[in-house]
Amino acid sequence: MSLLQIIELLRNRLKTVVRVCLAALAFLVIADAMPGLVDKEHAHTRPEHWPGFWSAFGLLGCGMLVLFSKLLGRYVISRSEDYSDE
Amino acid sequence: MSNLWIHPSLILIAGAVLLPCVPRRFKKLFLMGVPMAVFGLVIRMAFEPGGGFGEIEFLDWTLVFGRVDALSLVFAHIMALMCCIGTLYGLHVEEDAQHIAAWAYVAGSLGAIFAEDLLTLFLFWEVMAFASVFLIWFRREPSSLAAGFRYLLVHIAGGISLLAGIVLHANATGGFAFNAFDVERMTTASYLILIGFILNAAVPPLHAWLPDAYPAGTFNGSVFLSAFTTKTAVYALARGFPGLDLLVVLGVIMSLYGVVYAIIENDARRLFAYHIISQVGYMVAGVGLGDPNTPVGQLALNGACAHAFAHILYKGQLFMGSGAVLHMTGETRMSHLGGLYPKMPWTFLFTLIGGLSISAFPLFSGFVSKSMIVQASFEGHVYWAGFLLNLAAVGTFYCNGLKIPYFIWFGKNNCQPPTWERAKEPPWNMMAAMGITAFLCVFIGCYTPYLYVQLPFQEAAHAYDPYTSYHISESLQILLFTAVGFFVLVKLRLIDPHEGTNLDLDWFYRKAGRAFLWLAQKPIQWADTLVGEMYRLAGLIPLMFSARATGNFDNGVIDGAVDGLAESVSPVGSRLRYVQRGQLQESLALAFIVVAGIALAVLYVF
């Protein structure tokens, strides 16, 4: 099976792929809450001990970064493509 | 000191000189042979470390070209390896000058890394700047020419700062030895040297040259550019300023600055350029945390070196992937690409591996290197830095692991018909270079001893294990929930790529350049015209008048007098002509008589 066929296969079964990914995400958060699976001895701060802290960090961080960047782009730094000062 | 020590830069420079003379049928063999010889030489050096190789007496100074220790070797190893990969990637490029520029550039980097004194460092530092600019100019587009000049001017400014610092430092200490500066008592000299280093590391606000110049390079030149200048600067910082607190602040700012700009960037190569700034930010922060006298500092310095090593490969991979798209389609703007996976599936896979590596996904190279720096910031109780570096990791995965692969190879197909027609997998050598790099990105992530055994602090390297359950869980949560955020934003159509230019701090010197041009064209030109007019009025016109009057005087008076005299003499001459009868002896006798008469008269009188 060629690489292209593998990609096509995954695209054709997108719903299944999405379901597997969602299950993996749920497992990650659940595992984070189970000391037997994730040893939080290496955590350094109190929030890191909260179950799913890094999940929330990733999701909110993504939203905040994109929002901040888009606002900065729209109102401060973005110009049309033909903007040239050369 | 060994007489057998050969500087790797010497091989590259000799190779560059000989390249045009190599017959065409041996050219590819030679192109691969030279960098591989350099890589072999660097590997061999690991078995004979030491200092003081390649000493040369110059004027009153001793220049030392070869300091071979763990710190220089880990950087030299990856740079020599990247030289092999970069040359393979551009193997089909016919123009010798492009290979010559690339090799001279690598020679500059290796020379700076092995330099034991600041003068040698400066020499190779400048070789790097002057060689690398050709990798931009060889693209031969007006925008590349302008970007190259800006790049050169900025680096010359940085070089001047570095040289001024070196001179002041030598004046204060009496020598040029390049060792760690006293970061507790920074002097003017050390600050000037630091400015020279951080300019090459693209630390804001001295960073704008990088996203300006690197995307303007040739498809293979940018692969070299992405690897050498900034990482040589990281080496110089690690050698000169480990443990400087200021670098932690600057590094964290860099890591987020690059991410914010990359998020709104439409051009793939410009996006990757901003992520160089972001990733070098991790290394700069690692150097800032890297007090070599503490275990945490040693972990941080190991992290800076390991991350530079991993970064050269995965960033090279990303530039090779985007370079392949550029080379095959002529396009790198995401707003003009999309849906390319049926045409370039392997390029997609290799670029994705680069994206997963830079994002520090488990089993990929960034995971085993970046985490050292983040962990050092937590263990050193610099929590704000640890959290902000993890926030930068969110943006890194968003851009490199999700945005680029999705909007170039999937998403809406925005390709123009010619772009779509041209799109196909690149030549075998480009595929091979990407394949080797992809393998190395995974290999380093899975088999950590390959990298860790080369790190400068072996005790700290042995004590560090990146594959703890907590670290894997932390990384996967951050990255996969970032992916959730990304796909939600895609679904809401909030992040569709669109055309645009994003202003950066180069705006200031571009504007300053325009202001200078305006100054030259308007006020200075006006003043010049005014002075010229005044000169014409006050100087030239009277001068012309006096010249004309003098001419008239000459014609009327002088010439008249001379002509009149000549006319008056002419009849006398005509009469005297009869006295001259052609009798020479008679004439001589008459002349003597006249002279003798005059002489007797004079004697009689006096």
Give the helix/strand layout:
The complex is a heterodimer of chains A (86) and B (606).
Chain A: H1 3-12, H2 14-32, H3 53-77, E1 78-79
Chain B: H1 8-18, H2 27-45, E1 50-58, E2 61-68, H3 70-89, H4 96-114, H5 118-137, H6 142-173, H7 188-200, H8 209-213, H9 221-240, H10 245-263, H11 268-289, H12 295-329, H13 345-358, H14 365-379, H15 383-409, H16 417-422, H17 428-446, H18 449-452, H19 458-463, H20 469-491, E3 501-502, H21 506-576, H22 584-605
Antiparallel strand pairs in B: 1-2
Helix pairs in contact in B: 1-2, 1-4, 2-3, 3-4, 3-9, 3-12, 3-17, 4-5, 4-9, 5-6, 5-9, 6-7, 7-9, 9-11, 9-12, 10-11, 10-15, 11-12, 11-14, 11-15, 12-13, 12-14, 12-17, 13-15, 13-17, 14-15, 14-17, 15-20
What key attributes describe this structure?
heterodimer, A: 86 residues, mainly alpha, 3 helices, 63% helix, 2% strand, flat, B: 606 residues, 3 domains, two-stranded antiparallel sheet, 22 helices, 73% helix
Q: How would you describe the overall organization of this protein?
A:
The complex is a heterodimer of chains A (86) and B (606). Helix content of chain A is 63%, strand content 2%. Chain A has 3 helices and 1 strand; from the N terminus they run αααβ. Chain A has helices spanning 3-12, 14-32, 53-77; one strand at residues 78-79. The model of chain A has no long low-confidence stretch (mean pLDDT 90). Chain A has one domain (3-77). Chain A is an all-alpha fold. With 606 residues, chain B is mainly α. Chain B has 3 domains: 1-241, no CATH class; 242-497, no CATH class; 503-533. Chain B is built from 22 helices and 3 strands. A two-stranded antiparallel ribbon of chain B has the order 1-2. Chain B is elongated, with a radius of gyration of 36 Å. The interface between A and B is large, with 49 and 54 residues.
